[in-house]
Amino acid sequence: MHLSLIQWTSVGLALLSTLIAAAIVGILIRSKRSSEFRLFLGYSVTYIAIVVIGLVAFFLTSCQITGCEQYMYVLQVLSFVFMALEFAVMYEIFVNAMRSYSALVDLGKMLFTWATAFLFIAAAITAFATSGPQSSRLVAAYAVVERSMRLMECGLLMLFFFFEKRLALPWRNPNVSIALGLGATASVDLMLSYLKGRFPEQIPVFDLVNSSVYIGVLCFWCYSLAAARVGAKSTAVPANRLVLQRWNEAMTAYGYGSSASASASNVESFLPGIERTVDRVLARKAMH
To answer: Which terminus of the chain has a smaller tally of CB atoms within 10 A, N or C?
Structure first.
């Protein structure tokens, strides 16, 4: 078996990413946060399985050993599962970040449901419109869904970036860190997809860049999850969340969320008004 330097580098990066993903799984299990990030845990485990099966198929192909078709079929199925889990992870971190606002969570659930339906419709239309064998249709449908998900991940990153102060979530928060990693990976992947079309002879190099960026994201996730486990006791809720509370109340008025959370948010937004009224009364008495 004779492999080039780029191929050996790709194998080394794949093994390194598997070790880091296994470390993430270990951190989630040891910190007992697997229930909070169960979809992200499944996402990490599926990634490990995809890399292992992909390496087995790669070496079988390089050694010209029969039976590689079965591995490639399993790898393709796992790739679809991995993509579905990646979409589910976006929903999970959104729900975790908006946990205090049930009406906004219900709105986000509806938006994610419609987005899922749109992705399936777009994939079906692409598969029917693509000419050629069935494998080519599946590849085309997968590409459409993947690029649509990459754009959604970039949008999720912008949501956390612009509302970081409103949500009172620091960048070391696991939800924000996962969103940041998904958004960075999606941005690089979209850029490299464009470059692969313009410079097809450099595809192996672009794949190495993509793998290196994803390893950096895995290291960032590993660090943020470990840091969050150490500093889990430090929680602070600033007053600028009142904007999101008003949004939550407005959505509750349209039937989203639960009445219990609505009454709680009404009380929280009502208390600052009472405090301001008391301050004004005391100030007038002091003047007299």
So the answer is: C
In a domain, 250, yes or no: no
Label residues 107-137 b or e (16+ Cβ within 10 Å = b): bbeeebeebeeebeeebeebbeebeeeeeeb
The full DSSP string for 109-157 is HHHHHHHHHHHHHHHHHHHHH--S-HHHHHHHHHHHHHHHHHHHHHHHH
Q: Which of 119, 117, 136, 118 is nearest to 127 (CA)?
A: 136
Q: Please indicate, yes or no, if residue 249 is contained in any of the structural domains.
A: no
Nearest to 156 by CA among 122, 180, 134: 180
What tens digit of pLDDT does each residue of 239-259 get?
445 555 655 665 566 565 554
Q: Using DSSP, state whether 3 is helix, strand or coil.
A: coil
pLDDT tens track for 262-284: 444 443 444 455 455 545 555 55
Report the CATH number at residue 31: 1.20.1070
First to last CA, the chain: 94
Does one domain contain both 153 and 39?
Answer: yes
**Encoded amino acid at 17, one letter:** S
Q: Are 168 and 236 in contact (CB under 8 A)?
A: yes
pLDDT tier at 94, thresholds 50, 70, 90:
confident
